[in-house]
Amino acid sequence: MARIVAGLFEETTKADAALQSLQGSGFQRSGIDSFYTPPPGQHGLHPLGGDVHSDAGARKAGRGATLGAVIGAAAGAALAFVAIRTGILPPSEFAWLALVIAGGVGAYVGSFAGAMVKMRAGTARNATREHPNEPPAGRMIAVLIENPEMDALAIEILGHNGARKMWRAEGTWGNGSWLDFDPRSRLVAV
Fold first, then answer.
1. Alpha carbon of residue 121 to chain centroid
2. What pTM, to 2 d.p., does this model score?
3. pLDDT tens, 104-160?
4. Domains in the chain: ranges and CATH
């Protein structure tokens, strides 16, 4: 496995300047890769679309939605029952329909609220391969680190030229490219 330092740039002109600085500082062109990373979820890696079933921040949202739906359904049906018993809703042969509708609306609202309560911002700490914290969109410059002294120099050059985020990774390098880059893989922030 090759050691790699990568930087993400918002502006192409800054990325181009970083490429020139890297080459001017002794990095070989065959050890520098430049590519675009699309926004999270747009890599088409999941069979149903997107990249994964859920990301690092949404991993617990399903359980929250389920619990919210159960509580919401019970609360909605209870409110309808109270409304019928107190005369707010007239008792009739369709009173059971009011209970079902109120329970359904309560389940819908409760599932949304439960999911939102459990949502968090994804971080590298809570990310896994199944629930990643993907890098944002932008131009990525990856640098092959052939010896330890080059690591700090690559980080300095990328940062000086405006890299928004920087990471260290291990991967397969060949033909001047980071061959096994996967936006779902865990990257170690610099």
1. 8
2. 0.61
3. 999 999 999 999 998 877 666 666 666 666 667 899 999 999 988 899 999 999 999
4. 2-38+133-189 (3.30.70.120), 61-118 (no CATH)
Q: CA-CA distances (angstroms) from residue 164 to 27, 35, 39, 94?
A: 21, 15, 15, 61
Q: What is the dihedral of CA 3, 181, 175, 159, to 10 degrees?
A: -60
Share of the chain above pLDDT 90, in %: 62
* 179: DSSP letter: T
Structure tokens at 81: 């029952």
Orientation of helix 95-118 relative to helix 61-85, angle to 10°: 150
Closest to 36 measured CA to CA, from 155, 135, 132, 172:
135
**Which residue blocks in 5-123 are alpha helix, DSSP H?**
12-24, 61-85, 95-118
Q: Are 142 and 165 in contact (CB under 8 A)?
A: no
Task: Give dist(CA 13, CA 139) in Å, integer.
Answer: 10
Which pair of structure tokens corresponds to residue 5?
A: 């330092």
